[in-house]
Specification:
EC 6.-.-.-; coiled coil; five-stranded antiparallel β-sheet; alpha/beta; five-stranded parallel β-sheet; disordered C terminus
Length: 535
């Protein structure tokens, strides 16, 4: 697989805060710790070297429970070693892995662990996938796109998605274009969606050492209990993160997350709702649950698993239970982590390095040949349709479609007319300039009509160009944010291996991936929708 890097800023697809972070703008330095360079990992290892051994022991036991039904698994015991560290990425439990960038996240984590192992052989490094099992936004995980067709999971289940049963997805497996055994095993044999995701991720990346962790665990939550209690009683995270958010917004940035006064949900089977404080009582929204201060603190000690952190405190929870060096995230995640460093400082927890995941556009050989035939560059494909069409016609046409020379000639004519008019009557100046403007406007309209006419002459080529862009940018978005990895894996079962061999986790570019030898067409122009009904 050939890789051509593009600067992220040339794509027009990334927010300013993310780009400025990658550029290491000086005014952003207070919002993070060490910038992710290979040499800086030595400092991060030192910062995380005091990770408590008792936390490691709890972590390993939790992972052993979570992996109990998986026969071939990574070596979990190495996490007991004080010289073992992890690098982490995370995402929601999208069905069939969801958009392609989820795979890119995991590949970045695996490759980063490899790179660190080579650079720091005295330590061990484990890639970790944090499964967002407690998330309750089912709509976001309920669909995936394959060969231009949208598959949607419809269910009556509610609450944390990780606790849902995935067997209803057997209906999806029946209507896929071909069998995918890795998902058949996961969705039909596992009791929960969390177990299913762990199952298929282990099949895909277990040999690379990937460890999947489910934070929905009573013993892991017990390690987080001091923060739970502090948040319920004092609501400090709200004040701290708001102060940071105001500073970022004062620099002109749009921020991603809005802190709550209490940044926890109450979590039981079928329910994950916000906890709010009203006077001296604590209420769980959209339920009949109401607690006094003493009652809710007692529940926290008895059942810490019922307190599910939101986006403001979930990163802190992750860092308290993992000997983590870096979090690998996308263009929305890295910016919201920048809002949170003050909370880490307050609880005296080392802030992880924030590492952008790998970004890519995969162009198969057929699409590559079409682009070459049309004479369009990769950079141009990132343009909007209007600019792309206009530039293509101007570049392709053998005729000059601009009337610049004619406009200059008109300007010269009117200079002479104006000189003559003023010599006769100075009050004619306005009338002459008005007539000049009319004529130039007429030329502008003629120029537009010439371009439109030439576009019609190239209608076939323009349609081919826009069709190519539609394949590479489905629904007008980046390929990695829409297409599923099966679009490519079903045609090439070495696709994941190629990604692992191609991506550099410390190269913050947009990767244009092309086949070295060429494959069959893997994109479909079909635009349909499939609905998966409960079994």
């Amino acid at each position: 697989m050939h890789c051509q890097p593009l600067p992220l800023e040339t794509t027009g697809a990334f927010p300013p805060l993310f780009l400025d972070y990658i550029s290491q703008k000086a005014h952003l330095k207070p919002f993070y710790g060490h910038f992710p360079t290979l040499s800086n990992f030595e400092k991060q290892i030192k910062d995380k070297s005091q990770f408590p051994s008792e936390h490691r022991a709890v972590l390993v036991k939790a992972l052993e429970r979570q992996y109990k039904n998986i026969s071939v698994k990574p070596d979990l015991t190495i996490l007991n070693d004080p010289n073992t560290f992890v690098v982490t990425t995370g995402h929601q439990l999208n069905i069939f892995t969801g958009p392609l960038y989820v795979i890119y996240k995991i590949v970045t984590a695996v490759n980063l662990a490899r790179k660190l192992q080579a650079a720091y052989p005295d330590s061990k490094f484990v890639p970790v996938y944090w499964m967002a099992t407690e998330d309750h936004d089912f709509e976001e995980i309920s669909y995936f796109n394959l060969f231009g067709k949208k598959y949607t999971w419809q269910t009556q289940q509610r609450g944390a998605v990780g606790r849902m049963t995935p067997r209803e997805l057997g209906e999806a497996l029946k209507i896929l274009p071909e069998r995918v055994p890795v998902f058949e095993k996961a969705y039909l044999q596992c009791d929960t969606l969390a177990d299913a995701v762990r199952c298929y991720m282990n099949e895909l990346f277990g040999a690379e050492g990937l460890v999947c962790i489910d934070g929905d665990d009573a013993e892991l939550k017990r390690l987080f209990l001091p923060v739970v209690e502090s948040e319920l009683l004092h609501q400090e995270a709200h004040q701290i993160s708001n102060a940071t958010t105001q500073k970022l917004e004062a620099e002109g940035y749009h921020t991603q997350i809005t802190p709550r006064e209490i940044n926890f949900f109450y979590l039981v089977d079928g329910l994950r709702e916000r906890i709010v404080k009203e006077g001296d009582i604590y209420r769980v929204l959209n339920s009949d649950l109401v607690f006094s201060k003493e009652e809710i603190i007692a529940i926290a000690h008895q059942h810490p698993e019922r307190f599910s952190p939101n986006v403001v405190l979930r990163p802190l929870y992750q860092e308290i239970i993992l000997p983590n060096l870096a979090y690998i995230g996308g263009p929305s995640e890295v910016p919201y982590w920048l809002q949170l460093k003050g909370i880490f400082d307050h609880f005296q927890v080392p802030f992880p390095m924030l590492l952008p995941r790998n970004f890519a556009l995969y162009i198969n050989s057929a699409s590559q040949k079409r682009a070459e035939k049309l004479g369009v560059t990769v950079e141009e494909l990132f343009w909007d349709d209007v600019k792309l069409r206009k530039t293509f016609v101007e570049k392709t046409s053998s005729l000059s479609l601009e009337l610049d020379e004619e406009k200059r000639a008109i300007e010269e004519v009117f200079v002479a007319i104006l000189r003559k008019a003023i010599s006769i009557d100075k009050t004619l100046e306005g009338a002459v300039n008005a007539e000049k403007t009319k004529v130039l406007n007429t030329l502008e309209n003629v120029e537009k009509r010439l371009k439109k006419a030439e576009e019609r002459n190239y209608e076939t080529e323009v349609n081919q160009l826009l069709g190519l862009k539609s394949k590479l940018f489905p629904n007008g978005s980046l390929q990695e944010r829409s297409d599923n990895f099966l679009n490519f894996y079903l045609n090439d079962n070495t696709f994941l291996e190629k990604l692992l061999g191609t991506f550099d986790p410390l190269d913050f570019s947009f990767n244009i991936l092309t086949d070295e030898e060429g494959d069959e067409e893997v994109f479909s122009s079909e635009n349909a929708t499939g609905r998966i009904n409960p079994a």
